[in-house]
Amino acid sequence: MRIFTLCILLTLGFAANAQIDKEPIPTPEISTIEVSSGNTVIGKVIDLESNKPIPAASVQLFAILKNDNDSHKDSLVAVMLTKSNGDFSFQELPSYDSLKIKITAVGHADAVRTFTFMNEQDTEALRKDVGNIVLAREAQQLEGIVITAARPAMKLGIDKKIFDVDQTITSKGGTAVDVMKNIPSLSVDVDGNVELRNSAPTIFVDGRPTILTLDQIPSDNIDRVELITNPSAKYDASSGGGIINIILKKEKRRGFNGLVSITGGTPEVFRTNANLNLRQGKFNFFLSGNYSTSGGKSNSSSERINFADGLVSNYFNQHTINDRSRNFKSIRGGFDYFIDNRNTITLSQGYTQGDFKNIESQSQEFLDASKTTERYGDRTNFNTFQFRRNNSQLNYTHKFPKSGRELNASLNVNYGGVNNYSNIESNYTKPDGTVDGSATLVRNRGSNDNNQWTAKIDFTSPLNEHSKIETGLRSFINNYESVFNTYSVLDVGEVKLPLSNNYKYREQVHAAYFTYTGEVGTFGYQLGLRGEYSDFDGTLVDSAKHFGYTYPSGIKNIWDALFPSVFLSKKLNDRDELQLNYSRRVRRPGFWQLNPFIDINDPLNIQQGNPELKPEFRNSFELNYSVGYGQNNNFLAVLYYRNTVGDITRYSDTITAAQYEKLQNSAIDPDAILNTYINSKSNNRLGLELTLQQKIAKGFDITPSASFAYRKVNADVKDMDLSNEGFNWNAKMTANYKIKTAKESSFFNDLSFQLSGSYESPRVIPQGKVLEQYSADLALRKDLFKDKKGSIVFSVNDLFDTNRRGVIYDTPSFYQESYRRWRVRSFRVTFSYKFGNANFQLFKKNGGGQENGGDF
Questions:
Q1: Is 741 a member of any domain?
Q2: Rg for the chain (alpha carbons), in Å?
Q3: Distance CA 289, CA 437 (A)
Q4: Could you tell me if residue 197 is inside a domain?
Q5: Per the domain annotation, does 8 fall within a domain?
Q6: What distances in angstroms separate CA 250 from CA 44, 165, 247, 346, 582, one per listed residue?
Q7: What is the pTM assigned to this prediction?
Q8: Distance between CA atoms of 852 and 661, rounded to whole angstroms?
């Protein structure tokens, strides 16, 4: 909390010392203005649709003068053009109590504002902030047809890719997982896990950490997704796998606006969603809610050969069917308060609730070395899982009059808990149908509480036209407590097993960064340095055993806390650019990778963390070449190299006799595989990514992408060499087609189609390889009603029912080939309707026609 207090004090200090940059006022054209009293008028001009500043808009300031016959006339006092950030400032103004501002800008409708200083014989000069003056765009009409420009589905940049979710219609009515499947460079496995270049990226929501998983975020709540493949020193050092920043919808248009949708489908798919927004005066209110249910049966299978002294000892086959139901509820609301045109406060609160039920039926077959069946196993796991997640955010933004100078401070709190319960029953029979041993029943019950606090302050300031600095502080504190008890239910009663595990941990990361950006001619550069102190302290409550790490552990290890970045760029012309960048990142082991707790949900493939794990450090290099051509066509090529020291990787081996003894009464097979984690010596990856955004014909465009990578892992454990290397590639393509007919009233006019597909080749892991994976999605969209406020979308997820994940482990002690499905093929129909009223007023206006000093 001391770090947080420091951040708040710095925020207040910056705000208190923010200086207003003065601009010389043009010489008045009206000679009737006699005395200058030092009064000041400031404001900002922004575009209604994009909410971005309008540069070079003409701002005319008039004094409203009273004639002898009590009529009024306007007398021009001053004229100026807005700055690049939309700001204008008139200073040393005369003492007239009634003034009028007229704004004109190319392509926009004019705006007029009147106001008074209301100076009641004050001796001090007064300052009037008229706030943000919003200009609406003038509609361009051709023969009665209004021309509007749609946002492109994807914007390719050198350091960032931005994806408009509304354009990916295959994700309508789905979750963030469905969105990620459409983004080049990302791969999504059957469990919904997302990887960027075979590494797990950091997931942000609105630029901040989250405890939500991707399948807990409705796609209809997402405005856009930002993908940063090689973050600079400005970003968390733990984002070595890249950053996925999910930007949630929040309108800022004037009046009342909303979007509602309802989805139905199979298996057991039902979702409703609403996004509402009200902007008036100095306030912008937003509210969204979602309810969804889904079900389906997934399956998985494993075939294993066990070895002893290099010879086959036995065989094992397993098949699992998981009948699952998932229920989500979420609500998010808040407001922006525009204190003035320089200062904004945003407060938001979110709540998500989930209730899952899984009934897992597993059949097992045990065979001897000659493939003769020795016995059969039947295992049933009934599991319930409930979670509650909350998110509270407080943000403050101060924009200085100097263009580009800005201060941002925020406090982000994630908190919530989980309850889960499961019964695992196992029975065994001989080939003749007689019972083999006693049935076993294991009962698990657990709960946890988690809260995360993130305090940030960031300051950006241009030094001149060609350079700027960025600096900031960040403090992250994560507290986690869990109680897990497991019992073997016997005839004599329940016996608590050694698997019971009560633990807690506290994770802290405190950071500071500084970057300098400059340019010389067509060359640009950015130099950055980030320093982070991290501490992880975990405790097994029952045994008082501690585990974790501290980095840096001392001054001699200071390099473990420093993370530099260098970005160099060269503009070849207006649309082509070349960039070379480097960054050093860290990946700290997660709790489940550290915790020595043993998970027995799968009796043949049990899981355990390794408390001896250390963070891995990664050096990343990228060479980017971006080419723009034609009408919104773009080609991006990326050559990258990653060197990871101490790479955290999975390691599997059969359990020892001592481990089997410890797991007594848990229905664990003596030949079960124990999956854990180790630090490899190094992991080197060289890759090439190619992405094309191409318009083929009117209404038809495609976005193909492909990546190629060569990976070499250098690892050993227990004098066993686990090194492996190999080549892999993947490809992805999204195709969009929109029918345009001569007859506007035709049902087929504006009917949209989208087909997306992906393929991933096999790739190596330390003890084997991940098998190929491929799938395709299809969607059709039809806009409804004359003003296209409604739409209906039909979509199929996993069109050919092929999406499954396969893994081969090939070790001296066993060979195993397994397949797994989690998400099943689904069919969805989604109806959406958007509405709005720019003239809607929740608050009553003052007599002057403005609310507390202006329309923001």
A1: yes
A2: 31
A3: 52
A4: no
A5: no
A6: 21, 14, 9, 12, 34
A7: 0.76
A8: 75
